[in-house]
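Dear support,

I submitted the protein below through the web form. The confirmation email said the job was done, but the results page showed an empty box. After a refresh the structure appeared. I'm attaching both so you can tell me whether what I see now is the final result or a partial one.
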Amino acid sequence: MRRSALAISLLLAVGLTASACAGAPAESAERPASTSGATDSAEWPRTIEHAMGSTEIDAPPLRIVALDNSYVDATILLESDVVGYTTYRSVDGTFPEYLGEAAQEYAGEATSVGVITEPDLEAIHALDPDLIISAKVRHEKIYDQLSQIAPTVMSETTGPTWQENIRLLASALGKEELAEAKLETYLAAAETVGAEINEKAGDPTISVVRFLDGPTRLYLNATFSGIVLQDMNLARPKAQDVDDFAIEINEEQIGLAEADRIFVTTFAGEDDLGVKTKERFALNPLWKPLAPKTVDVSDEAWMTAVSVQGAYEIMSDLADAFDVEGPAGAESVVG
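What the results page shows now:
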């Protein structure tokens, strides 16, 4: 279907008018796309198989709308331009510090297209993307509408499959070799830092605790942080050495967080409930023997990043906690 026909279908689907589209900011359609990071292959057009079916992409995408924060990070990792994103952790158009200078280079002119739970289809259309990337678990219901705007690719989910998701995006961008190089560098760094920690601290166990505006969680192996710990060959306490997402604990179960080192994140949530829960736990006598082993770390990096960039932050925090050399290769990730 030609772009003009796609645009007309979209307008009908979302109830827009021609005049509304005409009022879109000119700069959103005229922004020159970066050509940094040449594609690995000249095999275009190509068909991408993904969680929602198959999508044909005619040419290397240069303007990407990423509807999940992990895909913002992945697009930047693969040296491609993010022109639109949904707000989840970004505030006033800023991005996490762990993305470094690369965020400005590849997403410096990106604009919000609504909240992650309800992307603004009109705003996405106005950006004239040539690829939309997201996850079925996020946006399955609007896949057909998104596909009328631009080729749309979706992974099944965003958490434990984060490395495969990078490869999926790479296949849509034609940057498979770049993705493999970045992942291989990360995995080598993870193995090295993990080995240094194990040698220095005698194979310590690592616990991950998250205070939320709901039940307190211990994060298990099938999570972003859990996978990073596995890539580093770091041991988990028995209660957390489970191929699942998380277990919820109350104050009477504080002992399940026991480990040689306990990394703690806090998501404040509404009315700072996460902070208040953490403070309440800290006053509990059962927490007292654990307190000297705890290390406060970024919730943003350990929990919501779900990316190579976030993984480097986790490795850096672990290296600092055990006083070993930090991960090599970070400069190739954050710019």
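Response: this is the final, complete result; the empty box was a page-load delay. The two ends are 38 Å apart (CA to CA).
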